[in-house]
Amino acid sequence: MGLTVNISGRVGQDPETRYSQGGMAITSFSVACEEYDRKAREKKTVWCRCILFGKVGERAAQVVKKGVVVELLAGKMNSRESDGGKVYTDYIFNDFTVLAFPARNDDCPEIPEDEVPF
To answer: Which of 16, 21, 40, 65 is deepest in the core (most CB within 10 A)?
Structure first.
């Protein structure tokens, strides 16, 4: 039995979709989540890279855009190490729900590219 992860937050960039050799869609995007730092007594933003496969990934590529608030439930955590020794964590989900669309693109807070880690 593995760790189950639930994530909700605002999407930081439009999804990227690629396809496996077998033709299955693999869609990924980053979600900004808030975490409370008790020592500093402040909220901080944590970026979570979310991945969806198959038909769900295709649907996410059509519906999810930068600035949309999403909820992803019952995902699993996958850690991987890069050549430089840095560990990256991806979150793999089977489904998602769009909770809110921005009223206009102007209403969506601008997230500088250098703050989006993926």
So the answer is: 65
Tens-digit pLDDT profile for residues 77-90:
888 887 777 777 88
Long-range contacts of 77-81 (CB under 8 A, 24+ apart): 77/2, 77/3, 77/5
Q: Can you give the residue range of the structural domain that contains 73? A: 4-106
Domain count, the chain: 1
CATH, residue 39: 2.40.50.140
Name the more confident of 115 and 81: 81
**Would you state the torsion angle of the CA atoms of residues 106, 101, 92, 16, taken in this order, to the nearest 10 degrees?**
-50
